Amino acid sequence: MLEALGVDVDDESLAETPRRVARMYAELLEPTAFDVTTFPNDGNYDELVIVRDIPFSSLCEHHLMPFTGVAHLAYLPGRRIVGLSKLARVVEMYARRLQVQERMTTQVADWLETELEPRGVGVVLEAEHLCMTVRGVRTPGARTITSAVRGTLRQDARTRGEFLTLVRGS
Description:
Blueprint: H1 17-28, E1 38-40, E2 49-60, E3 66-76, E4 80-82, H2 85-95, E5 98-99, H3 101-116, E6 120-129, H4 130-133, E7 144-151, H5 152-155, H6 157-168
Parallel strand pairs: 2-5
Antiparallel strand pairs: 1-4, 2-3, 3-6, 6-7
Helix pairs in contact: 2-3
């Protein structure tokens, strides 16, 4: 890449750059393994569980530039509930790969649905994409919002509305 840009690759200050860049990408694309911890829903909790403002960073698969933002996750428990830290871990797991925001949103929702078997799932991602901020259209501050809803959150307008209101913080 440096040669393609016409950079003097024999410059002493650039000697380790290829190794550092490869190590950086390996770090950014290495998800942390985790075990899902669920517990019986002994109290029969049947209202929304929401974790808001989970920070994430990912790499746009089209430009290899970062996009960063926050994720808001919700589920309506079924027979089991999940350790809350696992909700942040699942966001990190999908962020730590070459990604597009739309796919990441559905991957997180699908994981929640598969692993928890809840009555409903809601996921909203809000992110700023550096490929839009520093190149191309150059629109700093523009945020992309994607959502995925499943089960009761999709079928029941009131529950969906409650989820979206709570995610907005209103």
